Amino acid sequence: MRRILVTGGAGFIGSNFVRYQLERYPDVHIVVFDKLTYAGNRANLVDLDSSRYTFVLGDIADRPALETALDGCDALVNFAADTHVDRSIMGASEFIATNVTGVYTIAECVRALGIPRAVLVSTDEVYGSIDAGAFRETDPVAPRNPYAASKASGDLMALAHHATFGTPLIITRGSNTYGPYQHPEKVLPLFVTNALEGKPLPLYRGGEHNVRDWLHVRDHGAAIDCVLRKGTPGEIYNIAAGNERENLELTRKILELTGKDESLIQPVPDRPGHDRRYAVDASKLRSLGWVPEVPWDDGIAATVAWYCEHETWWRPLKSGEFVEYYRRQYRVQP
Ligand code: NAD
Ligand code: DAU
C-alpha cells in the first residue's frame, strides 16, 4: 500500500497509528483527514516527518470533501468518531452524526471510488457488558450507552453495505486503549494529570465494581495494520490483550507511579448505565498472526512517565471547553 487515508488521524489511536505506519513502511504516504473536534489535535502529529503525510481538515459526513481526499488512495482506515461515553450521556447528536452518518458516508465513498479495502475501527463496547467469559465476533451487539449504540449502528450499516453492495469494509472491535496522546477526559490520562496536579481522582462507585481490559495503543495499531493487510472484507475482528484490571487497581497503580497517596481518591456518583465489564475473545485476530507485545507493567510505567514529561501537551487540553465539561460532569472545577 502506497497511500492510505486515515480519518480521525489527529486523535489518540489514529495519530499513534500514523506514527506506526511511517515507522514500519518507508514508502507509505498517509493522508490524515480530520475535523479537529475538541479531541483532535495537530500537536499529536508534530514529531512526524511532514514530507510523509498530508493533513486535510474535513468531516467524514461531508461526502464531496471525503471523496476528494480519498481519490488516489489504496485504502482507508477510519478512527474518526465521538468517543467519550460520559459526553454521549449528556447528548448524543454529534455521536450519531459522526459514528453513524459519517460511517455510512465512508461506505458510500469507498464504493463509489472502488477503494480496494477500508478498515472501520470500532469498539468492544458494542457487545455490552459481560460478567464472565468473552464475546466472540458472532455474538449479537447489545450496546448499553449512547456512544456504544452509535458505534454498533455504524457497524451494522457497514456490514449491511458489504452484504448489499460487496463494499470491502472490515470492522475491528478493540478494548480499552492506553498510551501517549490520549485526551485527558479519559480515565487514565485524567487520573495521571489530576494526580500530578494534586487534584482528586473522581472514581465512579469506588472503582471496585468495574473492570476494563487494557491494550497498549501500539498493540492496537499493530492489530489494525494486521487486519488492514490480512483481514477479509465483511468480517469483524476483536482486539484485546487479556489484561483485565479493576478500576481501583488501575487507580492505585497510577498513584504509585506518580508518587501520590490514596487520599486523592474521591468516590463520586456512578456513571448512569455503567457497564461492569467488557471482554472480547481475540483468537480470530491471533490466527492472522497478531500478538500483543507490550507487557502491562512496562506499558503503564512508560505511559505515566510520558504524561509526566509532556505537561506542555496536556495542560492546554484541560482549559477552555474542558473546564465547563468538567464542572458539568463532576460538579467541581478541574
Ligand atoms: P479520539 O476521541 O482521541 O479521536 C477522535 C478523532 O476523530 C479526533 O481527531 C477528532 O477530531 C476526529 N473526528 C471526530 N469527528 C470527526 C468527523 N466527523 N470527521 C472527521 N474527524 C472527526 O478517539 P480515539 O480514542 O483515538 O478512538 C479512535 C477510534 O477507536 C474510535 O472509533 C473509537 O470508537 C475506537 N476505540 C477507542 C478505544 C479507546 O480506548 N480509546 C478503544 C476501542 C475503540
Ligand atoms: O472499551 C473501549 C472503550 O473504552 C472505547 O470504545 C471508548 O471510546 C473509550 O472511551 C473507553 O470507554 P470507557 O467508558 O471504558 O473509558 P473511560 O476512560 O471513560 O472509563 C474507563 C473506566 O473508568 C470506566 O469503568 C469508567 C471509569 N471512570 C471514568 C472516568 C472518566 C471513572 O471511574 N472516573 C472517571 O472520571
Structure, explained:
The structure is a single chain. The strands form 4 sheets. A 7-stranded parallel beta sheet has the order 3-2-1-4-5-6-11, sandwiched between helices. The longest helix has 21 residues. Strand 1, helix 1 and strand 2 form a beta-alpha-beta unit. It folds into 2 domains: 201 residues, Rossmann fold; 96 residues, UDP-galactose 4-epimerase, domain 1. The radius of gyration is 19 Å and the shape is globular. Helix 1 crosses helix 7, helix 2 packs across helix 4 and helix 4 runs parallel beside helix 5. The chain is built from 12 helices and 13 strands. Helices cover 41% and strands 16% of the residues. It is of the alpha/beta class and 334 residues long. The structure holds nicotinamide-adenine-dinucleotide and 2'deoxy-thymidine-5'-diphospho-alpha-D-glucose.
SSE arrangement:
Blueprint: E1 3-7, H1 12-24, E2 29-34, E3 53-57, H2 63-70, E4 75-78, H3 85-90, H4 93-113, E5 117-123, H5 146-165, E6 169-174, E7 177-178, H6 187-197, E8 201-204, E9 211-213, E10 215-216, H7 217-230, E11 236-239, E12 244-246, H8 247-258, E13 265-268, H9 283-286, H10 296-309, H11 311-314, H12 321-330
Parallel strand pairs: 1-2, 1-4, 2-3, 4-5, 5-6, 6-11, 7-10, 8-13
Antiparallel strand pairs: 9-12
Helix pairs in contact: 1-7, 2-4, 4-5, 6-8, 8-10
The protein binds nicotinamide-adenine-dinucleotide and 2'deoxy-thymidine-5'-diphospho-alpha-D-glucose (DAU).
